[in-house]
Amino acid sequence: MDGPVFDAMLKTALEEALRQDAEEAPKPAKISRRHRKQMRQMLADPWGYARRVRPGRTRSRRSRMSRWLAAAVVAALLTGTAAGYALRGGETFRQMFENSPWAEEYGSAADTEQLLEMGGELDTLIVESNGLRFEMLDAVSDGQMAMVSVRLTVLEELDQLMTSDQSICFDEIKVVSEGGEKIHLFGLTVSPWTANMHHDLEPGQFSLIFTINDLALTEGGRYEIQLKDLMSTAAHALLRGEWTLGVTLRPAGVLELYPERVCKLNGADWTLEHLTASPLAMTMDFSYLSGEWNHEWDFLDDISINLRSGSVIGDSSIGAFGSDDHIGLTMEFHMPLDVSQIESVTICGEEIPLKK
């Protein structure tokens, strides 16, 4: 048996043993923010962290060496799949947002630490079948928007994926609650290994972020992401199969308002009946009032978030759907916001205060 095959088999066996130990072990106590901060400092600079001593205290050489060895073990574990597992509980997304180019624009209104209170439980760590390997890395939910981070490895030889920037998708994606109710999938972000921002991805690997949008998330609970048939962006079937990823999300409250304000959208009058705000998103529901709507969506460019600091956020990912008598909008923020810092939202010149 050659070295690479043995290493792969050993890695898989260790991962399965870790998974079983995690399932059988009692649920750990909740980690405080102070301890999370200490862990991040230790991982960033293990030896430097070991040298930090509170005033008036000393450490023996043996104590320093023990701490260094412990840090070395942690650092050794934080490679490959183990790195993703160790950084879950919201930490993966916290780091992702803090490294985002949007952090400076959002300024003090952004609060990435709150993601650590939104972390969910990954019910399936590794799913491998039909030529694909899914490694679940992290999940967060704010009550109406949830994000699930997954690393996908294509185990088959697919030249069209390895030699070009062509992305992938799935023929069918469903998000289903434990009770069987289908939940709305806001989107799927796929980052191929060729993207410069993902230095940790190898050829044949993709970073997937599933974004789920539904007020049913306020209750939390177990959800399944059900995938069918790996497709190319050219709608060509690459690998046939079905895969299921399980996650349990925490319950969370959202700010709900019923403004009953009239807004003019593309020439017609609509009543803003319902507005919800949470750290990751804002949703709005309009009902038709009067006038002629040309079924254009130009008004989406005239929506902005006004912060208490005086700053204005005018750029976000917006999902929209509508009919002759109803329009629904979902704005996904580029950074997790401190909702208390939102003063109002402006829609086509109409300012809506965020007050109950």
What does it look like?
It contains 8 helices and 20 strands. The longest helix is centred in the first third of the chain and has 22 residues, at 3-24. The protein is globular. The chain has helices spanning 3-24, 33-44, 46-51, 61-77, 81-86, 91-98, 103-106, 159-162, and strands spanning 121-122, 126-129, 132-141, 145-154, 168-177, 182-183, 185-192, 205-213, 221-232, 237-249, 255-257, 261-265, 268-278, 281-290, 303-307, 312-313, 317-322, 326-332, 342-347, 350-353. The chain has 356 residues and is an alpha+beta fold. The termini are far apart.
What's the arrangement of secondary structure elements?
Layout: H1 3-24, H2 33-44, H3 46-51, H4 61-77, H5 81-86, H6 91-98, H7 103-106, E1 121-122, E2 126-129, E3 132-141, E4 145-154, H8 159-162, E5 168-177, E6 182-183, E7 185-192, E8 205-213, E9 221-232, E10 237-249, E11 255-257, E12 261-265, E13 268-278, E14 281-290, E15 303-307, E16 312-313, E17 317-322, E18 326-332, E19 342-347, E20 350-353
Antiparallel strand pairs: 1-10, 2-3, 3-4, 4-8, 5-6, 5-9, 7-8, 9-10, 11-13, 12-13, 13-14, 14-18, 15-16, 15-19, 17-18, 19-20
